């Protein structure tokens, strides 16, 4: 689960991390009020969307010469005009994809005098099960570009969860960033605070880009991007409360209510599959036959009828879906239960596109009987490849 920059900074400051003063604003009036409270002389008007690269992003409808999604201004009036221009507009960055994201809230922050910009992030290293720290002197840039062009400028080290952060970790970080004296002390303190926050809140990733040294030698977190491990959210109701559903796909929100593993994609073939591996294989084979999957969906092993009905409705709600392929290999999941779920869902929402069903494994015969006797216009398939071929043909109007 992702949160906005201003929320990430609020979370980090609970752990003592020094961040610039700022206030979120949902309207032009709130932006002006925030600027008046900050007092200036320099303000930064920052678009809050769940994507990075905002500074270099482009607003739809403003032309290539307009400023990006992060703007440094010098008066309350300029905060007002920029807020007017940014709120409600779609911002396209290299992380949003071409569709962009609508800016519904801003963060009005005090301007910092930047002497140096660094990159610093914490993430879980799945190989070692430790928290990894990634640091670079090349701040404010896309870290993927730095990794590609100048990998020697990136320093990575792990923190053993059994011991946590030690002074030598702080020294490693300071060395990587070329800091000494009081700034080295600040870096060590910051690392301890970030690590404590990361572990306490079950973060999956915490990225500070840029981390800056100010003109008066203070280390400051100028941008913060945080995502949380969704499997640990049950332990953090205060984090769940930060969720901004307007940033998420409504179909994925609905799926999460039913504990379904669903990811919306851009294609035209809706897929309902049990098992993540089989779901991946189903997507691959749809591509092999020349079409694109509209979603990834794993209904899971213990799927009951209600869950399957919900899943089918979510697939049907996608206007891009031109055909549906149900591919079930019954093991713990029983084909008859899946079949009943599909029949129920179709009865409730109607079937307007071709449907191919492939059932195999536990209670497959019973499942096929339920589908055949339902009177639904279903195309039966014998195996995975047959199913993919049939649904692609049906969608192309050849079946
Ligand atoms: P993004 O990474 O999405 O582009 P950032 O928050 O990193 O957004 O802002 C982009 C750039 O804007 C930063 O690299 C920094 O140079 C500048 N910037 C951001 N916040 C401030 C601030 N409070 N004061 C001065 N400059 C800022
Ligand atoms: Mg940034």
TrEMBL record:
Binds 1 Mg(2+) ion per subunit. GO terms for molecular function: ATP binding; magnesium ion binding; malate-CoA ligase activity; succinate-CoA ligase (ADP-forming) activity; succinate-CoA ligase (GDP-forming) activity. Pathway: Carbohydrate metabolism; tricarboxylic acid cycle; succinate from succinyl-CoA (ligase route): step 1/1; One-carbon metabolism; formaldehyde assimilation via serine pathway. Mg(2+) binds at residues 209, 223. PROSITE patterns: ATP_GRASP (PS50975), SUCCINYL_COA_LIG_3 (PS01217). GO terms for biological process: succinyl-CoA metabolic process; tricarboxylic acid cycle. Its cofactor is Mg(2+). Residues 9-241 form the ATP-grasp domain. Substrate binds at residues 274, 331-333. Its EC number is 6.2.1.5. ATP binds at residues 46, 53-55, 109, 112, 117. The keyword Metal-binding applies. GO terms for cellular component: cytosol; succinate-CoA ligase complex. Keywords: ATP-binding, Ligase, Magnesium, Metal-binding, Nucleotide-binding, Tricarboxylic acid cycle. It catalyses: succinate + ATP + CoA = succinyl-CoA + ADP + phosphate; GTP + succinate + CoA = succinyl-CoA + GDP + phosphate; (S)-malate + ATP + CoA = (S)-malyl-CoA + ADP + phosphate. Belongs to the succinate/malate CoA ligase beta subunit family. Heterotetramer of two alpha and two beta subunits. Succinyl-CoA synthetase functions in the citric acid cycle (TCA), coupling the hydrolysis of succinyl-CoA to the synthesis of either ATP or GTP and thus represents the only step of substrate-level phosphorylation in the TCA. The beta subunit provides nucleotide specificity of the enzyme and binds the substrate succinate, while the binding sites for coenzyme A and phosphate are found in the alpha subunit. PANTHER family: SUCCINATE--COA LIGASE [GDP-FORMING] SUBUNIT BETA, MITOCHONDRIAL (PTHR11815:SF10), SUCCINYL-COA SYNTHETASE BETA CHAIN (PTHR11815). This is Succinate--CoA ligase [ADP-forming] subunit beta. It comes from Phenylobacterium parvum.
């Amino acid at each position: 689960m992702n949160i906005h920059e201003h929320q990430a900074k609020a979370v980090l400051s609970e752990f003592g991390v020094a961040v610039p003063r700022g206030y979120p604003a949902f309207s032009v009036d709130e932006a002006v009020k925030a600027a008046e409270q900050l007092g200036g002389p320099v303000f930064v008007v920052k678009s809050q969307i769940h994507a990075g690269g905002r500074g270099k992003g482009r607003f739809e409808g403003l032309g290539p010469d307009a400023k990006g999604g992060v703007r440094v201004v010098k008066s309350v009036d300029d905060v007002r005009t920029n807020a007017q221009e940014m709120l409600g507009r779609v911002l396209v960055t290299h992380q949003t994809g071409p569709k962009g994201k609508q800016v519904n809230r801003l963060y009005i922050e005090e301007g910092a005098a930047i002497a140096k910009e660094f990159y610093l992030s914490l993430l879980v290293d799945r190989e070692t099960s430790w928290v990894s720290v990634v640091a670079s002197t090349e701040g404010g840039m896309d870290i993927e570009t730095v990794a590609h062009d100048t990998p020697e400028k990136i320093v990575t080290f792990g923190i053993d969860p059994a011991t946590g952060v030690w002074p030598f970790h702080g020294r490693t970080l300071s060395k990587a960033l070329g800091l000494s004296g009081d700034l080295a002390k600040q870096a060590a303190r910051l690392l301890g605070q970030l690590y404590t926050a990361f572990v306490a809140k079950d973060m999956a990733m915490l990225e500070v880009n840029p981390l800056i040294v100010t003109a008066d030698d203070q280390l400051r977190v100028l941008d913060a991007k945080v995502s949380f491990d969704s499997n640990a959210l049950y332990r953090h109701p205060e984090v769940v409360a930060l969720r901004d559903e307007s940033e998420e796909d409504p179909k994925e929100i609905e799926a999460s209510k039913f504990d379904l593993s669903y990811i919306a994609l851009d294609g035209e073939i809706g897929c309902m599959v049990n098992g993540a591996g089989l779901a991946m294989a189903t997507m691959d084979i749809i591509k092999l036959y020349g079409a694109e999957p509209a979603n990834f969906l794993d209904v899971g092993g213990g799927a009951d009828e209600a869950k399957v009905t919900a899943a089918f409705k979510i697939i049907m709600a996608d206007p891009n879906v031109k055909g549906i392929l149900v591919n079930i290999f019954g093991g713990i999941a029983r084909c008859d239960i899946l079949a009943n779920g599909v029949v129920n869902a179709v009865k409730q929402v109607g079937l307007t596109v071709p449907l191919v069903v492939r059932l195999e494994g536990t209670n497959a015969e019973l499942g096929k009987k339920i589908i055949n006797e339902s009177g639904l216009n279903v195309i039966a398939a014998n195996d995975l490849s047959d199913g993919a071929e049939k649904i692609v043909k049906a969608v192309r109007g050849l079946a």
